[in-house]
Amino acid sequence: MEDIVSIFGYLAAILTTLSFLPQAIKTIREKNTEGISFIMYGMFTAGVLLWLIYGLFIKDIPIIVANLITLILALTILFLKMKYSGRGTKIK
Amino acid sequence: MEDIVSIFGYLAAILTTLSFLPQAIKTIREKNTEGISFIMYGMFTAGVLLWLIYGLFIKDIPIIVANLITLILALTILFLKMKYSGRGTKIK
Asked: Which chain A positions have a beta carbon within 8 Å of B36's beta carbon?
């Protein structure tokens, strides 16, 4: 039973971490960030950074790894949002 | 020291959970989901649902509360993405 519970936890971590990859790829390709909330990615990136610091403090490898990957992806999306915002819909 | 570490964890959870609120508000208001990745919100919602199940299994209140709030917000964004996708840029 404990193994099944752990599998749920690992699957959850993998899905929520890797979910930002298709968003980053889409944004890099399409250069369209109109529908994306700057405040969301600002808050989210700050939160993930704090999760990473928390993971380092408590020396929890899954928290460190998951949040390091998410931080890189969220920072990419945040950077592209700042780069393309206010420039109309699509940039070639 | 342990208190400071806990504060980092709580702040991290609050930021990453509530970050989806400005995105949901923006999407409800602007009805523009062009830049948002459907695959991201599909994966993310599934992941958050698994986090919630995991939290219920291990009876961890912070995991349950944070992921219940995130699930409602992520489901809202996913639903709006499905509703408005493929309809051009902006719908009044």
From this structure: 23, 35-36
